[in-house]
């Protein structure tokens, strides 16, 4: 167990293990093994193997989850193990051969049990006086171990940073704490206290009397394209003089381009991005939004546009709709129709479903049908081909269109660039299709990245150096969470780069302003990026520890509390400063307001959106 703990700490914590794990990790194992000694008189070795396998499974899950998400997994995250099979190629791509050593003792002991089971499982007869002394001794071990575990847990409960908390408590103690803490109710507010004035005050928003661009897209179609794993450093990036994403570069040059825009997703990843953009609420503290809020009657963009503009809404995704509970999410958010794998089929399948070219081509067919209606439409399109581990497939070499310098071969950075180059190519075809169908001039097009593609915790030393070469600065958390936002309304939006701090929660109010939809009666935590000035606060969850937030100049990540936190500059060659304890408290209060309001929302009780299959 000491060896297994050391291996886990090597993977999870920057400084690796220290002798402190003798106090933080081993007592939990002693506690379990002491109980076995006290109460198992027969087949003791089998109980040891079961306990060993359980503790090993927890440690293995923790470091594999950390390699993929950068998060210390708890029982809530491990409840989603059914999602792992769908991303198994991503998980296995992060495996190092030495990780399997964590199972070595289980394999050896199980083999011995099978070969020598009669000898090893033979009951050991112990005289009653000796048994009594043994039980007293092991009771002492259990009490001491339990006391040491409490000693590690209790003083560290107040730590804001889950990563720091797990390091100080010990991973096994932290897992036990997380399990027990799940039964403690959140400190929520009365929903009557959640007002738009309070939200705007915390964020520093001042609404202009005459907002710019208001109603510029009134009556126009709205298409929102969510780009899988698309980070902002890709915009304008060239490799040996060749643009990696020429089509999105062109769109950014000709449109409103928000280069200081950040992801706000949680455990649900892509589905959380869909939720945040369509609702302007924050993701829940624990779990995916689609699993936590699916039964709620959620205020949303589809409902707003339908109520005030008569919009028909549809969402397009080549995966099966039940992945991340999207069927129920779309019901809660209020989409009229969804198109999933049943409609797109499995032609040119990559990872979850058909490739992006199929996605855009078949989506365009439906958009033409929707455009024939008297009412405008709102369509959200979810691209998926550029999904981790970005290798596309050996069967689809034609998707790998980008030549790269040799140093980018056979590593995740090069794979990522090629995958995003293909995603851009397919998106370019979609734009040309919109123009050819006569939809371009009559559409507000919004494009954004859903979440990071190059997580720090998954990169080896060489890959981090390549990322530093690309970005021209140390690749850190601020660079990792920076994704692009582009808004284009031909004939209305000029070519402009807007560097106001912004996040996915700000998309809904900005689109509402452009389409002339009033938000006076709808609670929202974002702000209209075309009228809100320079001030903004972006609270973060899950991928960054609780209490993390962005302001105009830096990303702040807490330690045990505010005082020992770390700041990362949002801008190249500028120091990280400007964050204050007041902003930290305001960010936490915004999250509390969102949690309180969402928890108090009534159940929707509505019908599922229409499911469309290929005809």
Q: Keywords, please?
A:
615 residues, 43% helix, Alkaline Phosphatase, subunit A, alpha/beta, Sulfatase, cell membrane, Alkaline_phosphatase_core_sf, manganese, four-stranded antiparallel sheet, 12% strand, 25 helices
Describe this structure in words.
The chain starts with a helix and ends with a strand. It folds into 2 domains: 2-181, no CATH class; 213-528 and 583-603, Alkaline Phosphatase, subunit A (3-Layer(aba) Sandwich). Helices cover 43% and strands 12% of the residues. The protein is an alpha/beta fold and 615 residues long. GO terms for molecular function: metal ion binding. It is found in: Cell membrane. Keywords: Cell membrane, Manganese, Membrane, Metal-binding, Transmembrane, Transmembrane helix. Residues 220-517 form the Sulfatase N-terminal domain.
Unreliable runs: none
**Strand content bin:** 5-15%
CATH superfamily of the largest domain: Alkaline Phosphatase, subunit A
- Mean pLDDT comes to 88
**Separation, N- and C-terminal Cα atoms:** 57 Å
**Number of E-type strands:** 18
- Classify the helix fraction into a percent range: 40-55%
Which CATH class of the largest domain? Alpha Beta
- CATH architecture tag of the largest domain: 3-Layer(aba) Sandwich
- Our Rg estimate from Cα atoms comes to 26 Å
**In terms of quaternary structure, what is this?**
single chain
Organism: Paenibacillus herberti
Subcellular location: Cell membrane
GO molecular function: metal ion binding
Binding site for substrate: 387
């Amino acid at each position: 167990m000491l060896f297994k703990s050391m291996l886990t700490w090597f993977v999870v914590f920057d400084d690796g293990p220290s002798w402190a794990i003798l106090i933080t990790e081993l007592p939990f194992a002693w506690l379990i093994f002491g109980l076995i000694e006290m109460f198992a008189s027969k087949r003791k070795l089998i109980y040891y193997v079961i306990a060993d396998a359980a503790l090993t499974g927890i440690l293995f899950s923790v470091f594999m989850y950390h390699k993929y998400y950068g998060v210390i997994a708890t029982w809530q995250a491990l409840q989603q193990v059914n999602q792992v099979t769908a991303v198994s190629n991503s998980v296995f791509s992060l495996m190092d051969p030495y990780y399997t050593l964590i199972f070595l003792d289980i394999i050896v002991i199980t083999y011995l049990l099978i070969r020598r089971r009669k000898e090893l499982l033979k009951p050991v007869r112990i005289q009653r006086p000796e048994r009594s002394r043994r039980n007293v001794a092991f009771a002492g071990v259990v009490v001491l171990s339990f006391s040491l575990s409490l000693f590690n847990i209790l003083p560290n409960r107040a730590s804001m940073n889950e990563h720091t908390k797990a390091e100080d408590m010990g991973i096994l103690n932290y897992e036990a704490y997380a399990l027990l803490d799940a039964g403690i109710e959140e400190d929520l507010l009365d929903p009557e206290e959640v007002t738009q004035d309070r939200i705007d005050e915390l964020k520093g928003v001042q609404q202009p009397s005459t907002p710019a661009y208001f109603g510029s897209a009134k009556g126009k179609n709205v298409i929102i394209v969510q780009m899988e794993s698309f980070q902002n450093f890709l915009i304008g990036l060239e490799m040996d003089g060749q643009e990696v994403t020429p089509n999105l570069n062109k769109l950014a040059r000709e449109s409103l381009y928000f280069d200081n825009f950040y992801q706000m997703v949680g455990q649900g990843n892509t589905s959380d991005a869909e939720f945040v953009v369509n609702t302007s609420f924050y993701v829940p503290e624990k779990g995916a939004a689609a699993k936590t809020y699916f039964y709620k009657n959620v205020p949303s963009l589809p409902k707003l546009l339908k109520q005030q503009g008569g919009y028909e809404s549809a969402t397009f995704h080549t995966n099966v709709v039940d992945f991340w509970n999207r069927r129920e999410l779309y019901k809660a958010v209020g989409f009229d129709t969804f198109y999933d794998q049943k409609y797109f089929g499995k032609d040119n399948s990559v990872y979850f479903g058909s490739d992006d070219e199929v996605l855009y081509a078949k989506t365009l067919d439906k958009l033409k049908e929707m455009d024939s209606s008297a009412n405008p439409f709102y369509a959200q399109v979810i691209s998926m081909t550029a999904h981790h581990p970005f290798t596309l497939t050996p069967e689809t070499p034609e998707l790998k269109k980008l030549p790269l310098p040799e140093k980018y071969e056979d590593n995740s950075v090069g794979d990522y660039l090629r995958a995003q180059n293909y995603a851009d190519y397919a998106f370019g075809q979609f734009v040309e299709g919109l123009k050819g169908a006569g939809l371009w001039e009559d559409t507000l097009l919004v494009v954004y990245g859903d979440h990071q593609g190059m997580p720090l915790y998954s990169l080896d030393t060489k890959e981090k150096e390549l990322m530093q070469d690309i970005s021209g600065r140390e690749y850190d958390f601020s660079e990792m969470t920076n994704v692009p936002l582009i808004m284009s309304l031909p004939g209305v939006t000029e070519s402009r780069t807007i560097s106001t701090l912004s996040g996915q929660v700000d998309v809904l109010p900005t689109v509402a302003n452009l389409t002339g939809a009033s938000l006076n009666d709808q609670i929202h935590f974002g702000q209209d990026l075309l009228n809100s000035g320079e001030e903004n606060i972006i609270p973060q969850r899950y991928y960054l520890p609780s209490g993390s937030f962005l302001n105009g100049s830096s990303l702040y990540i807490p330690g045990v509390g505010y005082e020992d936190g770390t700041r990362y500059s949002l801008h190249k060659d500028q120091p990280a400063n400007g964050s204050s304890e007041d902003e930290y408290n305001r960010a936490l209060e915004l999250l509390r307001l969102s949690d309180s309001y969402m928890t108090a929302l009534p159940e929707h009780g509505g019908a599922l959106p229409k499911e469309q299959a290929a005809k």
